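One chain is below:
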Amino acid sequence: MSRPLPLFPLGTVLLPGLVLPLHVFEDRYRALVRLLMDLPDGTPREFGVVAIRQGWEVERPALGPSNREPAPSTGTGTPPPNAPLSLYEVGCSAELRQVTELADGRFDIVTVGRRRFKLGAVEVGAAPYLTAEVEWIPETPGEPGVADALAPGVLAVFHRYLRRMRAQPAQPGEQLPDDPTVLSYLIAASASLTLADRQHLLALPDTAARLRAERSLLTREVALLDQVRAVPIPLAELAVPSSPN
């Protein structure tokens, strides 16, 4: 375990290498930005981004006995405003790269996903924002040679997926990375996936496992796109019905 990491819960998944711009307006996160800016040169200016499983990131979040236990239901499918904040177990640190301070004290910042972590104890009250003990997750390729062997096939499926999503060929000069780990995170970031799917990819132990999962997800998505486009839709079904009022 390292020193406590400031947390910034969000309704999205940050991945290593992904650029994440943020507009910072809450006082507590303004304080976090100032803290990071005041760090000595050479010190990593990073905080933890972790996706919200359930609940809201409110001014004074109330964590239950477990920071990952589900919030109670209101019977409407929406957790109540005072529901405990429930976070996913694996997040990614965001490194502060650019800061623009606005006249009223808000910030526009640009961050880049740096390294994955597993949440330990989450502490409320030690700082204006949540902090947590984290265990950094090493970036490993998996079984020797497997990621390199998987990458070309996954890349081919990804190309098919992109062609169907764009309905046009790739632009001249467009290239995708050869490095299997970089490729795996690029696919996870750019494919149209649910938060749960993207979170699952972030939490997988190594590159080979991530590429296998992406091959399955992309194959599923390509099949669905092919099926949707193969089914003729009568023009009458596309018409917007007139209102009876």
Notes: The two ends are 64 Å apart (CA to CA). The helical segments are 27-37, 146-166, 180-190, 195-203, 207-230, 235-238. The chain is about 35% helix and 25% strand. The beta strands are 5-10, 19-24, 46-54, 86-87, 90-101, 107-123, 131-136.
